[in-house]
Write a structure and sequence with these properties.
Blueprint: H1 8-25, H2 27-33, H3 46-56, H4 77-86, H5 91-112, E1 124-128, H6 134-147, E2 156-159, H7 171-183, E3 187-191, H8 205-218, E4 224-229, H9 231-238, H10 242-247, E5 251-254, H11 259-272, E6 276-277, H12 281-292, H13 302-321, H14 328-332, E7 333-334, H15 336-342, H16 357-363
Parallel strand pairs: 1-4, 1-5, 2-3, 3-4, 6-7
């Protein structure tokens, strides 16, 4: 398109669409960095750029996410703990992670001083609804174990049933072994792990489980496995196999976010994107979140917040595209009208106590 022939209105549309496109393109990485309150990822160090790239990579043909090409040096525990503290919510999880860090440190000191130690299992079960931060914390745990000297690389390899189970006899063990090889030195994160416990006669999920259990024994010094999924289903999965019960004895439950916490997530995303909520927009966003969250699991916690944020930006773009002139300040403002339209309402139909959102914005 000839830039000379682009009107100001077209420029606004293109600018806003580019913002939305960029957000959508980087959803996976932004879940960690933007929606759970993590500090911004620094990209001034080469190893951090590589880690950021791998986090955002799409799932491969075998259902796995590629590990880091180069092993970054261990990070400072102080920085990792500060990052953990910076997450919104997750109070119970933060406490358990800190307990685990202390246990590992004391365990290492006892070994260094020639004192007897009990077996310390680092494999974990994460349970909770979607969007509660399980993958984010798993990635952090890989980095923490690396910083503590437990793991040699500290990468996270994320996989689900499709990345482990094949359709024919003998293929599943090979497919699972390939994933394990990628995870050596780091954490193998199996999402919706209960799906491996298939009941069909020709299901090969048990073959994947057996291969993983053997690898956990053979590589006990340089492999950590974290399995994740819904509460009840994960309990059934772990207790369905004596081998799983004996190796997974550390459970972390991820509570759903409260409305206040989800509102904090939304406002943090606004801050990172240089947006401001003006007038009654903040109150309306809170009600929007509360209204959508009545579905519980279907809303998806932080993922639901992400969807609301993107819907609001779409309608902000539509509003700005109808203006003859758009200032820098206007590009940064999210109004009650934007939220109203994102909720699928028409102008003049704002529920109490807001009244007429558009008139309110003008008065403000």
């Amino acid at each position: 398109m000839d830039q000379k022939n682009i009107s100001k209105k077209d420029q606004v549309i293109l600018q806003q669409l580019e913002v939305i496109r960029t957000m959508t393109e980087h959803n996976l990485s932004r879940l960690g960095t933007a929606f759970w309150g993590m500090p911004p990822v620094r990209t001034d160090r080469p190893e951090e750029k590589a880690a950021e790239h791998n986090t955002a990579a799409s799932t491969g043909n075998d259902g796995t996410k590629p590990p880091e090409a180069e092993t970054p040096p261990p990070e400072k525990m102080e920085d990792l703990q500060a990052e953990l503290d910076g997450y919104i919510g997750l109070e119970a999880v933060k406490k358990e992670v800190k307990n685990l860090i202390n246990m590992v440190r004391v365990y290492q000191m006892r070994r260094e001083n020639g004192l007897p130690t009990t077996d310390l299992s680092l494999h974990m079960v994460f349970s909770g609804n979607p969007g509660t931060g399980k993958t984010t914390v798993a990635r952090l745990m890989a980095r923490i174990y690396h910083a503590l000297g437990i793991l040699s690389k500290g990468q996270l390899v994320e996989v689900d049933r499709s990345g482990l189970v094949a359709g024919y006899v003998g293929q599943t063990a090979l497919k699972t072994a390939k994933v394990i090889e990628q995870a050596l030195g780091g954490v193998l994160f199996i999402d919706e792990a209960y799906a491996l416990n298939g009941k069909a006669e020709n299901d090969f999920g048990q073959e994947a489980i057996d291969t993983i259990l053997k690898a956990m024994e053979d590589h006990r010094d340089d492999l950590v496995v974290i399995v994740a999924g819904y509460d009840g289903l994960m309990d059934d999965f772990i207790h369905s196999n004596p081998g799983l019960e004996s190796r997974f004895n550390r459970f972390l439950h991820f509570d759903d976010y409260t409305v206040d916490e989800m509102m904090d997530i939304f406002k943090m995303q606004c801050k990172k994107g240089c947006y401001t909520l003006v007038g009654q927009a903040e109150e309306m966003v809170r009600d929007f979140i509360r209204e959508e969250n009545t579905g519980g699991i279907t809303f998806g916690n932080a993922r639901g917040v992400r969807n609301i944020f993107e819907q609001v930006l779409v309608h902000q773009a539509n509003r700005l595209a109808g203006l003859e002139q758009v200032s820098r300040e206007a590009l940064m403002e999210i109004t009650a009208e934007d939220v109203l339209m994102a909720r699928g309402m028409e102008e003049g139909t704002v529920p109490p106590p807001y009244g007429d959102a558009k008139n309110t914005e003008k008065k403000a």
